[in-house]
Amino acid sequence: MFEWLQSKWQSLIFRLLLYFLLAFVALAIIVGASFAQRFRPHLENEILPNLDRYIDYLIEDIGAPPDLEVARDLADSLPIEIRIEGGGVDWSSSRRIRRSDAYALEAAPPPYVDVFIGHHRRDEVLMVRRDPYRYLFALDRSFRARSERRQGVLFVALGAVFLALYFAIRRLFRPVAAISRQVERIGQGDLEQRVAAGGKGELAALAAGVNRMAAQIAAMLESKSALLLAVSHELRSPMTRMRVNLELLDESELRDQLIADLREMEALLAAILESEKLNQQHAKLALTRTELAGLIDEVVAGHPCRNRIRRRLTPVELDIDPLRIALLLKNLLDNACRYTRDDDGLIEIELEAEPGQVRISVRDQGIGIEADEVPRLTEAFYRPDNARRRGTGGYGLGLYLCRLIVAAHQGKLMIESEPGEGTRVIVDLPRDNS
Asked: CA distances (Å), 204 to each of 183, 194, 196, 290, in order?
């Protein structure tokens, strides 16, 4: 319940509704209290002066000792209820009128003598003392019923006004919810949707501004992707010619080094092209029902560090893009081999089937990473320090590409690392990617 309220509190419409409800309750309490406070002056200033003229006649008619039959006839013929106490008498014309000690009694203002005004909860009474008897008179319920009906009509009218105001304001602020959803989609990379907000007010102008911003961001990203893809494709041709020309040269250390550099550049271009394909919203995965443990075995069998890799695999089938998952596994194993302290360090790869998801983890016994650098490891071209760059090679695209592949499969990638203890990369893939 608390979490539901906490999530709803973020909604402007919900808060407005709550404010209106609190205002209505407060106003209802104030108006009700006002009616309650007005009733007593009404009793004292209007009813009491008129009733006092008949009190002596009523008591004289009832007699002493009281004639209860006469009292019953008076209660039935007049809009009052009567109770008589004292002198061995305890009689009431209605169960609603209580004994005198049940009321908070106060003496009536001058010039009334031996007259008291009392109340208990919602009941108001007049008590006249004529020793040894006490006569209590209360208005019948018809008077209060008319007053309560008037209050009920007033509260219903107030409620209708507040409800109409709420719907009017909700309609006015409807574009805010649409703008909020669109901003959230922009943050998630969806730049195709637009906010539908008509009118010419400030909120409509804000919605139009958000739409223009989304269109401009989409155009900028498209231009950047197009430029990057074009440059990458254009670089492939001269690099291929360079590779062919180097292969024709006589064998030498310089020739081998140049060929190795070209291979790194080709791998870098391939990673850039693949990352841009995965970044584009229209890119589709070639999902195939795949036995994941078998795919891991194939990747490990072809890896240069296969003799150091220890596997613990649970057979499980999953709808994945096998080529991209194979690339993901290769990059994770490459990193694990590259940053392990020595050639004898073991690399562990595990595959576990969990409820609703499949977990792949790759653990090395490498140099580890500082905690403040872990969140940035999946950024493009980010590498923790220069020493690692010189000693291990690479351009910081491996884990970035892994993150894109996992995100394309609607999964989650997590990294756990401790300096001097090694690093563990965890990939959680959902069972249903449709």
From this structure: 15, 12, 9, 49
- Is 413 found in the same domain as 310? yes
* Residue 392 counted as domain residue: yes
Domain boundary among 233, 258, 279: 279
Q: Give the H or E element holding residue 7.
A: helix 2-8
Judgement on whether residues 51 and 131 belong to the same structural domain of the protein:
yes
Please name which of 322, 263, 272, 268 lies closest in space to residue 292, comparing C-alpha atoms: 322
Cβ-Cβ contacts under 8 Å for 142 (sequence gap 6 or more): 79
Residues 293 and 238 occupy one common structural domain: no
Q: Count how many domains the chain has.
A: 3
Are the CB atoms for 338 and 352 separated by under 8 Å? no
Q: Which one of 236, 262, 279 terminates a domain?
A: 279
Distance CA 226, CA 5 (A): 45
Beta strands 309-313; 347-354: pairing state? parallel
Q: What is the residue range of 397's domain?
A: 288-430
CA distance 425 to 109: 87
108 by DSSP, 3-state: which?
coil
Q: Is residue 297 part of a domain?
A: yes
Residues 275 and 310 in one domain: no
Q: What is the pLDDT along the chain (434 residues), one digit of tens a residue?
A: 667 666 666 666 677 777 777 777 777 777 666 655 544 445 555 556 666 666 778 888 888 889 999 989 888 888 788 899 998 899 998 887 888 888 888 888 777 788 888 877 767 788 888 889 999 888 766 655 666 677 677 777 777 877 777 777 777 777 777 777 777 777 666 677 777 766 666 667 777 787 888 788 778 777 776 776 677 667 777 777 787 888 888 888 888 888 877 877 777 777 666 666 666 554 567 888 999 999 999 999 988 888 889 999 999 999 998 888 988 998 899 888 888 766 667 899 999 998 889 999 999 988 888 888 888 888 877 776 534 444 455 556 788 888 888 988 889 999 998 888 889 999 999 986 44
Model pTM above 0.85: no
Instruction: Tell whether 3 is covered by a domain.
Output: no
* 234 and 326 fall within a common domain: no
Output the six-digit token pair for 213.
Answer: 């911003």
| CA atoms within a 13 Å half-sphere pointing along the CA-CB vector of 73 | 8
